[in-house]
Automatic annotation (TrEMBL):
Protein name, entry field: GTP cyclohydrolase II
EC number: 3.5.4.25
Pathway: Cofactor biosynthesis; riboflavin biosynthesis
Family matches, as SUPFAM superfamilies: RibA-like
Enzyme class, broadest EC rank: hydrolase
Organism of this sequence: Coemansia reversa (strain ATCC 12441 / NRRL 1564)
Gene3D superfamilies attached to this UniProt entry: GTP cyclohydrolase II
CDD domains: GTP_cyclohydro2
Length: 449
């Protein structure tokens, strides 16, 4: 069920403060801001320790700095380490008793650092990004097939991907002729040849298929009422959003790489589930795109994400763990995603997400002509229905009853509380908090007409 997008500027918990700076300078500012915050935290912790030493303390994490790495001697960082060694691993700079005891005030400081990060990130994302599809190949999938598109962009050196359902969604850059290439060369990279080439080129030139009116029949009134009530939205708006067709505004998911969640089925997060669910929903409609960005660990990379996991095991949530490692809470940008969607001829979309920052960034940017007409929430199915066969493997890993808050639930709760994600929770965690299940089946069957 798609939703009109609420007022995300006021709803989000992570405010956006645009910073008019060049990317390099922005990164430097981020580093300095984070360093300042870490220093302040250490100073505060030190003076607190000197004045009130009555509170019981958790054991302090002992992280080696560059000078002691390799020795068996445990080492506790001092503020001096923070200023003298800017090349040392971030975690060593932030290590102190404060890692295990981040109080409210410190949390606010970390939050402020996160805000600076977001401003810097938005400034960076105004750079013009172009995407070039290198190859397209058909991938058999239960119930049909999709086309995997591998892209190069001028933003980084990674191979970003587009998982495309629907034969009519074509990449303009892939179809462009390359100097000296034969028909066989074109076939090998998945571009069209002969008569098909002319057809596809005409199609790409007109892109007329994206302007068809919505044509679905009545939606389920009860479900619309339920959603309107739950999210305090105007039922008329919800109804209008539910009538958008797959041709007019296809389902799109912008997904960020998560090796742990997707490849080794970790249930510390909901990433693996979300990818599978997005593929299921889009395949059900028969048309849509998943842009798969190689922004592992919200852009900090797998290695740093694993360090963040260890901090989480010491009691920090995903946001604080990133900040304590001197990374932004979320380092991702969406310039490549915008460029890929534009290359695929997608101008309007229903975005599968709960993330307000993602919506804002997709709509923003200097060159963006993209229209996110509504968002389709990604509720974890295990909140509402644990009998769905499609999710069996997930539940096998999860192995939990619904009244227990899993690690993935905690991860989702942090996203809602601290990152402005549109997910609702009741406290304390109990089955009562369950949000009504998205009435996707009824709606998506209708839009298939
Ligand atoms: N740094 C860090 N990244 C994580 C962690 N858990 C998952 N990720 C990464 O988070 C990214 C997915 O982002 P999420 O915040 O879960 O979701 P989202 O894409 O922002 O929002 P939705 O569109 O609503 O799913 C992937 O790149 C994961 O690798 C973690 O604990 N720390």
């Amino acid at each position: 069920m798609p939703f009109p997008i609420p007022d995300i500027d006021s709803a989000t918990a992570v405010p956006s403060t645009p910073v008019e700076k060049a990317p390099g300078r922005a990164a430097e500012m981020h580093f300095n801001a984070s360093l300042d915050v870490a220093l302040q935290i250490l100073e505060k912790q030190k003076s607190k320790d000197e004045t009130t030493d009555t509170e019981p303390k958790l054991p302090s994490p002992r992280l080696p700095t560059k000078s002691t790495r390799g020795s068996q001697e445990p080492y506790l960082a001092t503020p001096d380490d923070l200023i003298t060694d800017s090349t040392t691993c971030c975690s060593s700079r932030a290590s102190s008793a404060s890692l295990t005891e981040v109080n409210e005030e410190q949390k606010n400081q970390l939050e402020a650092a996160a805000t600076n990060d977001l401003g810097a990130k938005h400034a960076k994302d105004t750079e013009e990004v172009t995407a070039n599809c290198q190859v397209r190949a058909r991938i058999p999938y239960p119930g049909g097939h999709f086309y995997l598109h591998a892209y190069h962009t001028n933003e980084d050196k990674k191979e970003h991907l587009a998982i495309v359902f629907g034969d009519d969604i074509r990449s303009a850059s892939l179809e462009e002729p390359r100097e000296g290439e034969t028909d066989m060369d074109r076939k090998i990279r998945g571009a069209s040849t002969g008569a098909l080439r002319r057809l596809v080129s005409d199609d790409i030139a007109s892109r007329s298929m994206h302007t068809t009116d919505a044509a679905n029949s009545d939606s389920d009134v009860d479900q619309i009422d339920e959603y309107s009530r739950c999210f305090e939205l105007d039922p008329a708006e919800v109804f209008a959003a539910s009538r958008l067709s797959v041709v007019d505004a296809p389902l799109v998911r912008i997904h960020s790489e998560c090796f742990t969640g997707e490849t080794v089925s970790s249930v510390r997060c909901d990433c693996g589930y979300q990818l599978a669910e997005a593929m299921r929903l889009i395949q059900q409609e028969g048309r849509g795109v998943i842009v798969y960005l190689r922004q592992e660990g919200r852009g900090i990379g797998l290695l740093e994400k694993l360090k963040a996991y260890n901090l989480q095991d010491m009691g920090h949530d995903t946001v604080d763990a990133n900040l304590l490692l001197n990374h932004p809470a979320d380092a991702r940008t969406y310039g490549s995603a915008r460029a890929i969607l534009e290359d695929l001829g997608i101008s309007k979309m229903r975005l599968l997400t709960n993330n307000t920052d993602k919506i804002r960034q997709l709509r923003g940017g200097r060159k963006s002509n993209l229209d996110v007409v509504c968002h389709v929430p990604m509720y974890p199915r295990w909140w509402t229905d644990d009998s769905d066969g499609a999710q069996l493997s997930y539940f096998r890993h999860l192995g939990l009853k619904r009244d227990v808050m899993s690690e993935a639930d905690r991860y989702l709760q942090t996203k809602a509380k601290r990152m402005g994600h549109m997910l609702s929770f009741n406290e304390p965690f109990s089955p009562k908090f369950l949000t009504p299940r998205a009435p996707t089946s009824a709606l998506y069957t209708e839009t298939n007409n």
